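Hello Y.,

Per our agreement to keep a running log of every chain we model this quarter, I'm adding this entry. I've kept the format consistent with earlier entries: sequence first, then predicted structure.
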Amino acid sequence: MGKPLDPDQPTNVGIIGCGAIIAQYLASFRRLQGSNLINLVAVADLDPARAQAVADSYDGVRALTVEALLAADDVDLVLNLTIPAAHAEVALRAIAAGKSVYGEKPLAATTAEARQVLDAARAAGVTVGCAPDTVLGTGIQTARKAIDDGLIGRPISATATMVTPGHERWHPNPDFYYQPGGGPLLDMGPYYVSALVTLLGPVVSVIGAASHTRDERTIGSGARVGQNVPVAIDTHVTGVLVHASGALSTLVMSFDAVKTRSPNIEIHGEHGSLVVPDPNHFDGDVQLFALGAEDWQSLPVSAGYEDSGRGFGVADLIRTPAGQEPRAGGVLAFHALEVMESVLESAHTGTPVRIASTAARPAPVELVAIAPSPVAAIS
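Predicted structure for the entry above:
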């Protein structure tokens, strides 16, 4: 059996995967040191030089091989920052070593792999968390409070839009974005689907359509500039999500389109509409247009972890009372993954798909100043 996490003691964290995203986690962990929650002790990467560079930049951290980090007695939780195709393998190895896991999104490349992760964690008595933790920030949480407070009445529908001409324009190694487990839906969709479930509740069925515009992408930056990478996934995806509440969400995720003026997320209710900020960010302006009003009104920040960043979900997980599901937990991540996988299935079959899993709306986050005070526990 795994070792339970103790919110009254610092949790020793080891990171596997030292790619571009790790810088944001390290910045958050430095800020969270005063909360007595997280103690980063080790890092590992298939490229030892990358792990050593991180260790050299962070006091008290040692660079290890992946095998050594998983075997280390002083690592309580593994932060899994590997590529999507490796998420399940690394998570399962960490769980087998008796360690809790918090991973980058998606939880796994497929729901079948993700189910193995959750089942193994349950059997081992360890906790699984998963990005995105952006839903814990003031942007999504202020919008959620507005809905819960009845400012728009009963929610009817939502639109969620993300368009970009492709990550190869800026990412020096974009290959995994265009292989199974990547693509606009599985890469960016977790932010949007997790936010929609947080705002409107679980999804019961979906219908989707998708397209694939070209077979290669050209790298636009870094040492490999000018090289082509193959495309093996759909690069423009549209889906309609039917929530258990009856609300309908329309999702557009694209690595093909250039730009949009549409809000990232817009929620429509019987008595008003909300513009919700970018779910890839932790903050942002929430705007309300109430029935009978003459213009949009910016709502004051009223909920969420203030000035937060990637990695705050790890702290939130540690503070979750035993037996409760973390806000950025494996159950929500699994549900979001099944929703996205089902949109793609529907796109390929031309038929609606029922969603077998469910996920309760995570507990709301009251307005919390993170540093130097500890993260608030789920109540």
